[in-house]
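Open question from group meeting: does this chain pack into something compact, or does most of it stay loose? Before anyone orders reagents, we agreed to write out a predicted structure and look at it together. Recording both the input and the output here so the notebook holds the full record.
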Amino acid sequence: MKRQFKRLFLGAMTVVSFPSLTMAQTLDLNLQKAIEIAIAENPTIKIADKEIQLKEIADKEAWQSLLPTVTGQLALQHSIQVAAIKTAMGEFKMGADGTTTASAGLTMTIPIYAPAVYQNMKLTKEDIALTQEQARSSRLDLINQVTKAYYATLLSKDSRDVIQRSYDVAKQNYDVVEKKYQVGKVSEYDKISAEVQMRSMSSSVASAQTGLDLALLKLKVLMGINTDFDVVINDSLKAYEGIITLANAEASEGELENNSSLRQLDMNMNLLKRSEKILRTNFLPTVGMQLSGTYQSYSNDDWNIFGYKYSPSSTLAFSVNIPIFTASNWTKLKSNKVKMEQLADTRTNTSRQLSMAAQSYRKNMLTTITKLESDRQAVMQADKAVSISSKRYDVGKGTILELNQSETALTQAELTYHQGIYDYLVNKADLDYTLGRE
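Structure tokens returned:
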């Protein structure tokens, strides 16, 4: 499957990269292909993937804080007039006027105990997990949008086909009635009624085709392909009758555990807990070591630094930084605690709303299931009524009004049936998205 999609994707990329070929290329599309291409091409997914890369770089920066840092220093100081120390024993110059001092050194600092760095390292890993979940949410949202746009395209396509068939029948009826009118077998009223029915359906066909074009345009945009790309869909809503089952609408325990919004709220709570630990490190000491080495040359009479006589020196120092009192540390802890409480309330409210939404989608699906069988029977009865009214009119026992009404009823029954399948599929797609089903 992956190899097949790779060939398909490369073909699609060729068309997208060369707009001059878009009118000559076509793509046979189904729901699975539409989703795969959208995930590969939609900019939203690419942005989410790059955000993960940024977080992974930040993770490297966190543990790199434990590595030694090395700095170099170069200094050249010319004393115009040096200070003097005056005491009761006399005056002592701290060097010589008009001389130059040169120095060069390296300093290496190594953190030995840095609790904030350790917590930051854990924080970045949790932040990566949150970003990955956000990317998953973007994929689920895109899949949901593409799925519903695909179903909307099928609804527009099936509706167009139903109206087109109705127009063809109306056109045939008009041709028959007109011939009968020419020989005086039917009244002018029948001819006018048949013509009105035909022209009305002709206008409906144009509107249905416009709706199909707009649905296809939206689907192409969501897929991230060129809008001039020719897409062919050999699919219909009736093909999805097999997945319309009560099992899809049944509730299960812990069904919201995969919902991306709730998972992100839980991960944000973990980040706040980690932030609290980082804030508490402000009360802990830090230990560091510093090693430095320097070459210096004092009181030189000229500027030839390469001719100076240098002497080396080095130091090793350990430092312990002990925080005693910083008032803002306590304030930050209280602020973080309030944020955690706020987030907990938000999660509770979000969970209730999602549960209500899931129940609503299920009820809509159950309602549609009960209606579809009735709608299916209505289509069969309406088709039978068209056949009967057509025969009655042919033998002169029926009227053109009966014929038009029966055809209109069949068209409406078929449109209602397709709308029912569409409603079920859209509610199922929304339920899958709410429950975080991949």
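Observations to bring back to the group:
The two ends are 18 Å apart (CA to CA).
The helical segments are 2-17, 31-41, 43-64, 115-182, 188-223, 260-280, 327-394, 400-435.
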